[in-house]
Amino acid sequence: MPTRGLLRRGARLVRDAGRWRLAATGVLLLVALFLAGWDWNRPLGDGAAREIPTADAERGLYDWRAATFAPRVGQDQRILMLVYDDQTLIATRKRSPLDRGLLARALRNIDAMGAKSIGIDILFDQPQDEDAELLSTLHGMRTPVWLGYANLGDNQEQIIFEQQQYLDRFMKEARTDRVRPASIRLETDADNVARSWPEKTSGPTLGQPPLLTLAMQPSPSFSGYRGAIRFRLPIKQPDGSEEPVIPSLQIDTLADPAMAPALASMVRGRHVLIGGDIVDIDQFETPLSGRQARSTMIGLEVHATMLAQLLDGARLPPVPEGWRWLAALLVVGAAGLTSLAELRWFALVPALVAQATAIAGVPIWLQARGWDTKGLPAVGWGLGWVLAFTAIGVAARAVTSQQRRFAQAALGKYLPRDIAAQILAEPEKLALHGEKRQIFTLFTDLEGFTKLSHAIAPEMVAQLLNRYLDMLSDVVLAHGGTIDKFVGDAVVAFWGAPIARPDDGRNAALAAYAMWRAGEAFRQDLPPGVPPIGRTRVGLHHGDAIVGNFGGEGRIQYTALGDSMNTASRLEAANKALETSVLVSREAMLLSGLDWWRPMGRVRLRGRSTPVDLFEPAPDFPVDDAAALGEILAAFDSEDAAAQGAARERLKEMVNHHPDDAAIANLLYRYEYIGEGGTYGLG
After folding, report:
1. Which helix (H) or strand (E) segment is 145 a member of?
2. At what angle do helices 563-578 and 662-672 cross, to 10 degrees?
């Protein structure tokens, strides 16, 4: 649309939208700008625990970017980790911290090998019998040694007052011109993932010595660095194996005088970090979690990774705040102009693709170029765009009376007569905007119709499809439902909007069963020469949806959007795998008021994480068997293995008692091959 046309339409929108609608649109645009410009890494207000609602999604996208573009490197020859693990502690007959006699012997050998510096990620916060030997060794060290230190104010969950007192005394006794304390503090985000360097804690007023990494390798450029940790991945070898990026040795080997000479070359000239690799202690999730054999990284390796980043001078530049807000303005502005322009599809599609590519691609491009994208609102850009596009679009379409006339003209084709008459008398009941409603949503599908349409003449396809849709539409309208749309041979309908009635649940359930029966009657009454058609599958769910008029100016559709629609669609699709014809969620079953249901177990529907309890209308199924089936499934939900085994045998007996009931046989199959977590998952 030319610039003049955009300006004219914008002026008309401002003039005709009305004061309240214009104010609401302005508020939504401000919210969109906030979502698109806020640094999700910053808390909201003064409360550190309060964060922007999109933070979890932003963290997930950041982790993907950081892991995807993490540099692959060979083994770092500048750093060596010496670790003690649970086996070491068992051998020395001590729990953590490490036996200090063993540590003293290892330090003497490392000192003789010519290490560049030594950092010890161990807190000496309680006495041991070998303290005198360790102190003597520390006093004789020629290599700079940095002892791990923690402050009670920053680590109340890790250290108590008495431990702090002993730690301070030990540091005072151990300190020489070569042995000094260093902070071993690491920070995690709200989801307990280590992504950033810890904030500055050193200085006379903050109570902490220098960070261990900066103490071992002083660097003015990193002294105030608070950005992302640059994690690295190992290079894949030709045989598919991977060498750890940071080499490590068991500390026992360097404490052994017989082994030490052979390992001198691995120590000479390197920064040596000493710490623990203990199960469930000092373990951190990182953006690389899931990309390596181990899902967590020990704190010692996090320190080593930061030290390698410092040695490489890889101070990742942050995206300037001004750039971030400028990008937010561009995103919101582009969304508003696109919505206002009312482009034809052949112009709209390229515009949407270009904007989606920019919104998704810029954070990826910046990460690949070595920028610190932690805090960059990638999800916020998408949500801000959607919100701005929707706000402008809804306001623009609300100012045209043509939409209202179009909706009223279509009422009789999609709504029951009594509801249509009521809305025509009171048009305000059919809002021209979306509103959240609790509705019963129904999806159907005719099995095998697509394949059939390729086997018969197009005229016959149209005739059969129209007759079939007429039959199902009559059922919906006869039971007081609203026809949402036809998608090929599928019918989408809902109850509870635009007007809700007390018997919506009962009517929706009766309609679901009646639509299956109508489908059965249709497939039994096909013209000669038409191949057999499959059954009609039906899914019914009750839940929240956004209901209202959506679409373009001059062409709108009264429809429902949201999770309720998605769940009903997946229930319909689940019929195929579960060998049923009509599946209803527990929410819809409880509100139906009918007593003809039989439970069909619990499954995770495709693409969803929350399990759903399934029910099937079975008016001809014996009442006693239905009650027994409920008891059987309740036993499977218990943690009693004996009860579960007995339930499985009862279910086998029921299958034998109903040999032609494929759905019951499928239920037995699911409980015999149930997936992890006790819930059968559909692919």
Report:
1. strand 145-149
2. 100
Tokens standing for residue 507: 């009517």
Burial of 525 (0-12, 13-18, 19+ CB in 10 A): exposed
Q: pLDDT of 445-478, one tens digit each?
A: 999 888 888 888 888 888 999 999 999 999 999 9
Closest CA to 549 of 442, 352, 402: 402
Both tokens assigned to 286: 């990182």
Q: In whole angstroms, how far apart are CA 95 and each of 87, 281, 284? A: 10, 12, 21
Contact 284, 139 (CB under 8 A): no
**C-alpha angle with apex 148: 145 to 153, nearest 5 degrees?**
145
What is the spatial distance between Cα 414 and Cα 420, in angstroms, rounded to a whole number? 9
Q: How far is CA 623 from the centre of its chain?
A: 42
Looking at 342-425, list the stretches that DSSP marks H as alpha helix, in order from N- to C-terminal side. Answer: 345-368, 378-398, 401-414, 417-425
pLDDT for residue 153: 60
Structure tokens given for 629: 């089936």
Record the tokens describing residue 608, joined without a space.
């969803």
By CB neighbour count within 10 A (0-12 exposed, 13-18 middle, 19+ buried), where does 46 fall? exposed
Burial of 631 (0-12, 13-18, 19+ CB in 10 A): exposed
Pairing of strands 233-234, 248-250: unpaired
Task: Give the pLDDT confidence of 641-653 residue by residue, as tens digits.
Answer: 888 888 888 989 9
Distance, in Å, from the CA atom of 155 to the CA atom of 188, rounded to the nearest integer, reads 13
Rounded Cα distance between 350 and 632, Å, is 55
Cross-strand bridge partners of residue 682: none
User: Would you call 85 exposed, middle or buried from its count of C-beta atoms within 10 A (0-12, 13-18, 19+)?
Assistant: middle
| CA–centroid distance for 99 within its chain | 43
pTM (2 decimals)? 0.57
Q: How far is CA 552 from the centre of its chain?
A: 32
Farthest-apart Cα atoms in the chain, separation:
102
Encode pLDDT of 243-255 as tens digits: 899 999 999 888 8
Rounded CA-CA distance 514/493 in Å is 14
**Total count of residues recorded for the chain:** 683
Average pLDDT over residues 198-226: 79
